[in-house]
Amino acid sequence: MSRYSFASLCPEERPCGILKRGSAQPLLWRLKKGDLRNFPFHAGRPFYFFIILKVRREEIGSLGGRIVPPGFAKGSIMVITFSSMKGGVGKSTDAILLANNLAARGFRVLFFDMDTNNSSTIYYTLGIADEFPTRNVAEALTHRTTEGYTVKSRIPNVDIVPSSLRLFDIRSIDYHALKKTLPDGRYDFVVIDTAPTYDNLVMNALYAADCIFTPVQLDFFNITTTKFLRSHLYDELAEQVGKWFIYYTFWQDNLAPFPHSVQSQYAAVFESEFDNILKDIQIPKTPATAKYTQTDVKVSVRSQMLGSQRLAAAFNRLANLVTQTEPQKDGDGNEIFPVEKF
To answer: 24 vs 19, 21, 29, 53, 177, CA distance in Å?
Structure first.
């Protein structure tokens, strides 16, 4: 058990509740919604409606420390789901880049393509086959096993359960199905790409996840769709809320110093609305992203292209978080990345 503090409009800060670790975010959400049912009052303390939840950061750590679920041990299989209600934010490309970075570190990765757009499957199986009528994610979910339904991809250390249009036929599937389907022991990481929607298939991917990433582009519609996803997580999969993280895509470093730029203003809105943003993870707006998936040009921290450098650095940092790898620096204070090119 951990003690958290609440601060009211009165001048003193007082302890007003004993909450279970990880329950701070759901409580904050209930406060924002004005839902005070079952709120854990501290005996004998008055309650003020205008309160701000203050979490002792030294107890739960920074966002970087919280990205790994409590009690999660190195060596266990970790399931990472990429989910966004908004298409075109780079979700599939980000899932591929993270999976490939993990694979380049020597980890065994199973990629689940649950997006009927099929782009991840095309990337990983280019030159292997045009379609997989019997070995695909729909068959795996139907039979509750990955045995016989995985394909060795063209990227070392990455296997894939290919996408299939048959996913449309099983959209009413129980949302526990994927968790029952996942393999034990053979892989270090499972990376799941989902469709830009919210249905039972996406719920399967969210429910099975140890870590959920939502890439957001800084615009109004992304705020709306991310709020929608948050609302459904709290209402339907509350136990997964503490595993959910947001990061920015199409980030432009040249705009960051200017608080009145559209990018900075939307970032401020996001940061006032969400407290699960990975601020150190900013996926740059760069042609290197399209080149990576369309022409197979690798990204490198030593590339002559600044965009490629930034892209490689961003996914090294993200992979460091999920692998619990401490960032390293050289004698001059420059960041050292575990994978220079992938």
So the answer is: 7, 7, 9, 8, 29
